[in-house]
Structure formats: C-alpha cells, structure tokens
Design goal:
Chain lengths: 325, 373
C-alpha cells in the first residue's frame, strides 16, 4: 500500500538522487505541514476542478469591463428597443444578448459579470475581516483566560445568539443600503464562530510544554500568542477561511435579494435573482445568476473540504488508497 | 567555552538558590457557574533547600510527589502559595513579570518531553535563537552565528539551522532544548526529567553532555528524575521527595550506602541490579498500598500508612528534616525511627492500630485520585 507512495517520493527526489550516496539523507526531504497539504490537494481531482471553477469566476469578475467593451453593452445601459419584447418583457439569449436581457433591457451577461465582482469582493473582504477579528479574539480569550476569556466568550455567545436578518434590516433602515454595510454585517456575524473554534485550539495549545518553555525564557504574553501559538492554529485558520467565503457570498446574495445589500442599479447576483422573480417565463433571467451563485459556493465549499482533509494528519491513508485505486 | 575549567564540585561554593518553606497548592474548583473551592492539591508542602554554586542537586521521588511542581516554582512558572525563593541573594518570590526578566536569563529550564517542549511549527534556528530575540541581545547574522555556536556546543550539526523539530530524533531534540537553555549563559539550570523520555542508549549521551557543559561553563544543576541510577551518576547531593516534602537529603554516595529513611530504602531496593544471581538473592522491600492523595495527605509523617517501621507517634508528629543517629549535618532525614545500617526492613512490621495502615486505607479511599507531577 505504501509502495506507490515511496516510488513517487523517489521520483520527486531525482535531483538529490544524482548526488553521491553520502548525501543520502538529503533525499529524504523534510516537509512542513503546508507542503504536505499542498501535495495532497494537487492530487485531489475535486479540489483541482473546484479551483478551476473559482479561477474562471474570478476571471469573469476581473474581465467584466472587457466583456462590456466587447459586447458594446454598458452595465447600466437599458436597451428598450432591441433588448425588450413589445410588451416590455426581457428578451431570451440570442446573438446580440448572449445570456438574454433583464426586465430593464440590460445585458444579463454583463450584469452577471459585474455581479461576480460584488459577490467575490463581499465574500473575500468580509471573510478577511471576520477571520482577522475571530483569530485575534480567539487567541486572546484562549491564552489570557480568566476575566478576558469570560468577557470575550460571552460576547461570542451574544453575537451568535443575535438574529442576523433582523439586525441587518434594522441597520439598513437607519443608514441605508450599501456594499460596505453589507460587508460589515457579514463580517460582524461571521467572526464569532471563528473566534470560538480558535479559542478551543488555543486552550489546548497553551498547556503544551513549548509555551512553558517560552514563558521560562521571559517571553511576553503577546509574543507567545503571536510567535508561538498563532503558527500552530494557522492551518485551522486557512480551513475556516475557505469555508467562510462561500457562506459570506451567500450571505451577501441574501442581503441583496432582500434589498439590504448593494443598492440598484449596481448589479449583484442577489438583486438580479430578486428582479427575476416576477418573470417566470424568462428562465435565463433566473438561471444564469443562480447557477453562477451555486457553482461559486459549491466550488469554494468543496475546496474548503479538500483543504481540511489535506491538513488532517490521518489523511495519509486516504491519500494512499486514492492513489492505489 | 572560553571560561577556564574552574569547577567547584565541592559544596563549598556560595549559596546560589535558597528555598524556604516553599508551598504550592492547586485549588480544586467545582461547579461551572458558581465557583467554590473544593479543597486543594498539596503538590509541594513546605520544602526548604539550598543549592550551592557549581553543584548538582538531584531530586528524586515517585510520580506525583511534587518534583516538577517544585521545579516550576523555582523558575517562577508557578506562583508560590507560600514560602520564599531567594536567588543570588535576591528574593524572587513576588517579582513581577518585568522584574523577573533579568533573573530568567540566569535560571533556565530543560523540559522532560523533547517532543512537547519544542514548537513544531518553528525552525530550530528560531527556537534556539528565541532567548536572544526575547532579551534583545542579538539579531540578524549575529544571532545566527551565536545559534550555530550553541548547536555545535551541544553536538548538533549547525547546518541543520533551518530544519523543523520533527526532522530530529528524540536525543537530538533534547540537545536543542539544552542549547536553548544555554543561550543566555545561565547560572542555574533546572532539568525536569531531561532523560526519562529518551532511549537508554541516548540517555547516557545527554547526561554526559550535561556533565561536560557543567565543567566547561561552571553550571549549577537541579536534576529531577525518578531513575535513581541516573541521579546517582550526576548528583553531588540528592533530595528524596515524598508527597510534597523532602524526606531525606544527603550527599549522593552517602545516601546510596547509608539510606536512613524507610522510603529511601524502598526506592533503592527497587533499582534493578544487572547481575541476575545477585538480583535473585536480594530481597526487595515492597511497600503496601499506593501513594495517598495529595488532596488529603496523612497526618504526622506522610509516609506512615505505608511505612514498615511506623509507630503510633508517627501518626501524630511530623518529623523534621535533621541529622539523625550519628550522621553528619549534611545528611538529614525526616524520620523518627531512621534505618540503621544493615537493618532488615523486610522483616519489620508496623506497630499501628490497623485502621491507620495502607491496606485498610486503600479500601476506604474515595475517588480523589488527582495526581500532579
């Protein structure tokens, strides 16, 4: 069972193998957990397919202005004459509008491409903020303990207990909808779960002897938290982030769908889907943004799962089995 | 390395560390919302010791007798419940974290578990360089040069600077721990069972390394172990601990030839003898029962429930640690009825009311089996 693995390793160590046998030890390459995880992910077909989907959607977002230029259709440009049927309903896919038009006679492809920008932006920024806050809070609560832990943990409980939609509706009613508010709301409701998981990890790490060793050297709490403990939870953070991104994207789409996210006419997958509701006969209006949303979240989720498996120290057996089969 | 070999192996060096009645109790709390104290684990309960410059003080005892807790009290990883720790004439018992920093560079620790005491996610170079970074002594190339010097000093290949701890064997990892402890040129190194996690063949290497470093750098060691033969090999003096107290303190060779405390006798009789004939002919002193719970230690002499020589007054009076029989003052025993040379303890029978003895205590002991080591 381990046979194919070993030959594989040898093949990779070819460069070293050409050296004289005295450097035999060098052929056994030291691998950090990250390196190992990367090797496993590269061999995971689902993960690679997900990564390709994510790259394609990222390209769609990045190239949105190019698409607009090529089609000659601006994102907010309304084509009442050529883009709508006589009764004002959207036109289906054709050679002028590849993905059809929406209820205002706007090019759906261009709008979906711009919508991808909003979705990815909201997903990535909100996740980054949530992970940063969550990790810091988790480190502080887990390592410092006592009153700090009590305060932070109860705050986490409080945030997790809040009804997020109600909160979002109330906030938007006061300050008005915008992408920033949407990102802030998503980040606010996502950091707590990260914080709780990281805290649990840190609680067990702080009892390890290397933390004691650092303390006996006179290291400050801040130094121990960030230099000694943080690197040991980073893998966890990577996994959490990759699973948080799709939920943040869905969260943003939900807010936009309810009119609490990106204000029209700026397109977002959420508000395009909301607009499609009233035109049940125009399937393209719902299907294109819907499938994009589904594919993005599915790809991120599958990739996140793959990353988690890749960091699992017991994953080697599955890895070997998968290679054999 | 440049220091001349001015080794003071005789205990006439000046007092480096002085412990006075060190007590460390861990409170046991029950209930999650309304915390209430449900007693405490008396891990260390009144230990007084002095360590002189240049000597090696061995600390032996069973698991859970408080050796490691005492070590962590000396290095101030734990705050003391009571008592005093004086290092180089300075009382460090109540020093703040900031005030402790200069002291930390002089008192270092080597840990038991070479797998747990090195951060798995950091490179060896940065682990050994940590003391320099924390105390802002050296940085950049200077730090790297010093770290490589240290690696060479403890017998590691300096080229392995960029490796992770997982790429080393247990013995090599322990050398990394030694290098880290040496980085700041400490005066006192507390070795908390530095070899008990290692293979026997590797143990000797690490012990010899520690001995060489001591003579080269004029170090003082507190050497904790539960292996008596190891302690005998390295120590000038040995303190035997039982349930948070020192029961016997003596120059190393004297302790092995004239053990006074019945507990020391029992420990020594448990040391394996390499000669099978001798081993067969020898009678082992096997103690009755288990170590009592440190939450609720026995009254009087703590050893009395298991002691073959126990008498009624052992239950009431806690014997003090002083020279017994006609011993020199350097050999101190905490026992009312010290063992005379040549006495056969296997024949001794305790003269106690039966309710005080271990066999009966075992049955009545509740679930409080908390152990600290």
């Amino acid at each position: 069972m381990t046979q194919p693995l070993e030959t594989e390793l040898l093949a990779e160590g070819d460069l070293d193998a050409e050296l004289p046998p005295t450097s035999g030890a060098a052929a056994i390459e030291g691998r950090s957990p990250y390196k190992l995880a990367w090797l496993r992910i590269r061999r995971d077909r689902v993960a690679m397919a997900s990564a390709i989907v994510i790259i394609l959607i990222a390209l769609l977002a990045i190239l949105a202005p190019v698409i607009a230029h090529l089609t000659g259709h601006g994102v907010d440009q309304e084509f009442h004459r050529i883009g709508e049927n006589l009764d004002g309903s959207p036109k289906g896919p054709g050679h002028i509008f590849l993905w059809g038009t929406d209820d205002q006679g706007r090019d759906l492809l261009v709008r979906c491409a711009y919508g991808a920008r909003v979705s990815l932006e909201a997903g990535l920024i909100a996740t980054a903020i949530a992970v940063f806050i969550g990790t810091t809070v988790g480190l502080a609560a887990g390592y410092l303990g006592k009153i700090v832990d009590t305060l932070l943990s109860r705050t986490i409980d409080l945030v997790l207990a809040l009804p997020y939609l109600l909160f979002a509706i109330a906030l938007v009613a006061v300050v008005g909808p915008s992408l920033r508010i949407a990102i802030a709301v998503i980040a606010f409701f996502s950091w707590a779960s990260v914080g709780r998981i990281i805290r649990g990890q840190v609680l067990s790490l702080r009892e390890r002897e290397f933390v004691e060793a650092a303390r006996s050297l006179g290291a400050s709490s801040t130094r121990i938290m960030f230099v000694d403990v943080l690197p040991n939870v980073l893998a966890q953070v990577v996994v959490l982030s990759s699973l948080l991104i799709p939920s943040a994207i869905v969260f943003e789409a939900t807010l936009s769908y309810l009119g609490l996210g990106v204000p029209p006419p700026t397109p977002s997958w959420g508000n395009i889907i909301a607009g499609a509701q009233t035109y049940t006969e125009a399937w393209w209006f719902l299907v294109f943004p819907g499938v994009l949303l589904l594919m993005t979240t599915l790809a991120f989720n599958l990739l996140g799962d793959a990353i988690r498996d890749a960091f699992d120290p017991r994953g080697d057996q599955n890895f070997a089995r998968a290679k054999k089969g | 390395m440049s220091e001349p070999a001015a080794v003071q192996r005789e205990p006439s060096g000046e007092v480096l560390l002085e412990l006075t009645d060190v007590v460390k109790h861990f409170p046991i709390r029950s209930g999650s919302l309304l915390r209430r104290d449900a007693g405490s684990v008396k891990a260390v309960d009144g230990v007084s010791l002095t360590v002189r410059s240049g000597e090696t003080l061995g600390l032996v005892g069973e698991t859970g007798c408080g050796k490691s807790t005492l070590a962590r009290c000396i290095t101030r990883l734990y705050d003391l419940t009571a008592g005093k720790v004086v290092f180089e004439g300075q009382d460090i018992t109540k020093l703040s974290a900031r005030a402790m920093r200069p002291v930390r560079s002089k008192v270092q620790m080597i840990f038991q578990d070479p797998y747990g005491s090195l951060n798995p996610r950091r490179r060896v170079g940065s682990i050994i360089g940590d003391p320099f970074a924390i105390h802002r002594i050296a940085s950049g190339d200077d730090r790297k040069r010093r770290v490589q010097e240290l690696m060479e000093m403890v017998g590691l290949n300096p080229e392995h600077y960029n490796r992770f701890p997982a790429e080393f064997s247990g013995g090599q990892r322990q050398r990394i721990g030694v290098a880290r402890a040496l980085a700041l040129r400490p005066k006192l190194i507390v070795c908390d069972e530095p070899v008990s996690a290692l293979d026997v063949s590797i143990q000797a290497q690490v012990i010899n390394l520690l001995a060489d470093l001591q003579s080269e750098l004029g170090l003082t060691y507190i050497f904790i172990a539960h292996d008596l033969s190891v302690v005998r090999h390295v120590s000038d003096r040995v303190a035997v601990m039982y349930l948070g107290k020192v029961v016997e303190l003596s120059p190393s060779e004297r302790l092995y030839h004239h053990p006074r405390h019945p507990y020391t006798n029992a420990l020594l009789s448990a040391v394996p003898v390499p000669d099978p004939d001798l081993s067969d002919s020898r009678e082992r002193l096997i103690l009755a029962g288990d170590v009592p719970s440190p939450t609720n230690p026995p009254t009087g002499c703590r050893f009395h429930p298991r002691c073959p020589k126990a008498r009624p007054n052992c239950v009431e009076d806690d014997p003090s640690l002083t020279a017994r029989l006609d011993d020199e003052p350097s050999h101190q025993t905490a026992c009312h009825y010290p063992v005379v040379d040549g006495e056969d303890l296997t024949a001794a029978r305790p003269q106690l009311p039966s309710s005080q003895r271990a066999e009966d205590l075992v049955a009545t002991r509740s679930t409080e089996g908390s152990e600290t080591s």
